[in-house]
Structure formats: C-alpha cells, structure tokens
TrEMBL record:
Pfam families to which the protein is assigned, alphabetical: MFS_1
Subcellular location: Cell membrane
Transmembrane portions of the chain: 33-50, 71-89, 95-114, 135-160, 166-187, 212-233, 245-265, 277-296, 302-321, 333-355, 370-392
Major facilitator superfamily (MFS) profile domain ranges (all copies): 1-392
PROSITE patterns to which the protein is assigned, alphabetical: MFS
Protein's name in the database: MFS transporter
UniProt key word Acyltransferase: no
Main location: membrane
Taxonomic lineage from the root: Bacteria, Bacillati, Actinomycetota, Actinomycetes, Kitasatosporales
Annotated keywords: Cell membrane, Membrane, Transmembrane, Transmembrane helix, Transport
Cell membrane found in the keyword field: yes
Membrane topology according to the record: Multi-pass membrane protein
C-alpha cells in the first residue's frame, strides 16, 4: 500500500475503535445514569444516525470543493469536541447536542476519507500496484478491526471505571481521535479541491445519472439487508434461545471474518470477476443468507443465525470494496466526494424508511419473511451497472 493508503486505513481503524468504544453503551447511559425515557432515547439515537448518515452528502460536496485535508481535519476536531461534550453532558438537551455534533463530524470526515481512498487505490492500480479492490478490501478490514477492538476497549472502561465509566470511554475515544488529528495534520497532502464555475449544475447531473442511481439502488438493498444483523439476528436468537445474550459473539464473529478474510476473498474473487460482477456476487450471497436461514429455521438451534451472520458478512466483504472501486468509473473525479457521500445518504434514507416495515415483517411466523428478504438482492442484481473504460480523468480533478 502507498503511504497515503496506509494513513487512511490506519485512520479508519482509529475512527471505528474510538466510535465503538462509546456507541454500544450510549443507550444504557441515557436510560441509566441520565434516566431518560425510551421515546427520548430513541429520538437521541435517531438524531445521531440522521446527523451522520443522512448528511454524508454534505461532507462529500465539501470534499470536492476544498479537498479532503481541511474536511477531514474539521470533522475530526468536531468529533473530539463532541466526545468531550458527551462525557460531561448531564441533561437531555446537552446530550442531544453532543450526539448530533458527533454524528455531523462523521458526515464530514467519512466521505472525505472514503473518496480519497478510492482515488488513491485507483492511482496505485494504474501505477502498477495492487488491484484497487485489494487496496479497498484492506481499507475495509482496517475499519472492521477498529469496530472489533472498540467494544472490547469500551467494555474494559465501562465495567472498570466505576461511576465515571461512560465518561472514561468518551474521553478515551476523544484521545484516539486526537491522535488521528495529529497524524492527518502532519501527513495528509494539501490541495485537491476544485472551484469549477458550473459545479452546481454538474453536481445535480451526477445525482440524476442513471448509472450512479442504479448503483445506489443496489447499495441501498445491501445496506438494508446487512442491517438485519440488528433486526433479524436478535429476533432469531430470541426465538431459539429465549435471549440475546449471545448477540455480541455473533457480531465479534462478523468482525473477525472481515479482518481475517477480506484479503483472501478479494484475491480469489478478483481473479475471475471485475468490480460490477463482485457486487452482483455479493448480492447473491445476501440472498443465500436469508434463503438458507429460512430452510434452517425449522430445525431449531443456532444454525439459521450462524448462517445469516456468515453469509451476510461474506456479501459485505465483496460489495463494499467493489462499490468503492466502481464509483470512480461512473462519476467525474471532481465529484467523487459528492458521489461517495450521496451513495451513503441515499442508502441510509432507504434503511430509515424500510426498517419499520421490515421489523413488522419479521414478527410474522414461518419462513415467509426471510424468503421475501432473500428476493430483494436478487431483484437488485440487474441494477448493478457495468464499468465503462477507465480514463485518466478518474485520477485528476477537472
């Protein structure tokens, strides 16, 4: 990997480690230490999701205009401030403000980092380096390693620091982001923005581009199905064991698969598939996850839950790097940040709109709900666009 790719991968690791050291314990802190009611807790968590995923498009557009460096530095600074604020917030309104700031910070730095990583992966590939999907798979594995370590770190802090447990987790998270800030301030290249005169018109054209919207549709289906690790998986564990006590182990398994298997899976897949075909193969794995789960559910035991977790994760390991690799071929380089942010925002809005009916669907008995979910990625496969020929325009900002 190039020095910039290593910096961005390490940053993704630290981002997730700091974030997941705090997030799993936020709801418990809100209901326990602060005594907030369930509806208010739901509102706070919903605002966090919206201020992050829903606003990715803003971070992407700012990245295109000013370059990734100032957007990343601003986002990380706001994340530090948000975590420190959250550590000392003692009322519903101050917690809400801190949580929104934490989410908006990610809406700035995540699209900047992801779009720059896609650009760097393409640049390295054209210079004779590794395939862009391999570089992006390593990037995904780095982020997942942080997601795996973060809850462990949070558990040690939350259960080892007494009354100040949540505060300690927040401050450790802020310290990790301070290290990220220092590394980017020193090592991240300057420049890269564009101030093209007709940028607004061209940005609107990107959001109406059929190839981009088709990819966004397929990616939205992926995110909705992957989100079933938070809906279908807990419901299945409740059904077969009467509790969700084992849920953490399934999430740990998913993270470990990504960390250990992303590289080998990418090498084998890329030997025979291009990026669009990898996305389609990933969607087939998502369909297989629910179809096999539906077949295993009548047998009882953890088979359906285990199959769902493994196959959804394998699908994720193909779809994420392949989607990031495909974006530079579909949109002008000057708007790669916007496209990266818009992709996440559109998918996030889809999940937000579809999750309530999906949760209701999962309450129905029998295999029907799982079979209906298995049909969604199959229907999305034709939407995946083919990649046009890559030109030098993908590497420069015009």
């Amino acid at each position: 990997m190039t020095p910039l790719a290593r910096l961005l991968t390490a940053s993704q690791f630290a981002f997730n480690a700091g974030f997941y050291a705090v997030l799993p314990y936020l709801a418990g802190h809100l209901t326990g230490a602060l005594g907030l009611g369930g509806a208010l807790v739901g509102l706070v968590l919903g605002l966090r999701t919206f201020s992050q995923q829903g606003l990715f498009v803003i971070g992407g557009a700012l990245t295109d205009r000013f370059g990734p460096r100032p957007v990343v530095l601003t986002g990380v600074t706001l994340r530090i401030a948000g975590f420190v604020w959250l550590a000392y917030a003692t009322s519903a309104w101050t917690v809400t403000g801190a949580v929104v700031l934490v989410g908006f910070a990610a809406a700035l730095f995540s699209p900047a980092v992801e779009s720059e990583m896609a650009r760097e992966a393409l640049r390295a590939e054209r210079a004779g380096g590794p395939r862009r999907t391999r570089t992006l798979a390593r990037f995904s594995a780095g982020g997942q390693a942080g997601a795996l370590l973060g809850p462990v770190l949070g558990t040690l802090l939350v259960y080892g620091a007494g009354d100040a447990s949540f505060r300690a987790a927040c401050l450790v998270g802020a310290a990790l982001f301070a290290l990220v800030l220092a590394a980017h301030a020193r090592l991240m290249p300057r420049g890269g923005g564009t101030r093209e005169r007709h940028g607004t018109v061209r940005r609107r054209a990107i959001l109406r581009d059929r190839r981009f919207l088709r990819l966004a549709l397929a990616y939205s289906v992926y995110l909705l199905l992957h989100n079933q690790l938070y809906l279908a998986l807990p419901a299945e564990l409740d059904r077969v064991t009467g509790s969700q006590a084992a849920l953490g182990w399934f999430f740990a398994l998913s993270s470990a698969l990504v960390v250990l298997g992303s590289g080998p899976l990418e090498r084998r897949a890329a030997a025979v598939l291009d990026a669009p075909a990898m996305v389609r193969a990933g969607l087939l794995l998502l369909a297989a996850a629910f179809a096999a789960g539906a077949a295993l559910r009548p047998l009882g035991g953890p088979g359906a839950a285990l199959t769902l977790t493994v196959l959804l994760t394998l699908g994720q390991m193909l779809i994420l790097p392949a989607t990031r690799a495909l974006l530079p071929d579909l949109v002008p380089a000057a708007h790669l940040g916007l496209a990266t942010g818009a992709l996440s925002s559109l998918a996030g809005l889809t999940v937000l709109a579809a999750s309530p009916p999906t949760a209701t669907l999962l309450t129905l008995p029998g295999p029907t709900p799982w079979l209906l979910l298995a049909a969604l990625p199959v229907l999305a496969i034709p939407a995946v666009p083919s990649a046009p020929a890559v030109t030098a325009k993908a590497l420069t900002r015009t």
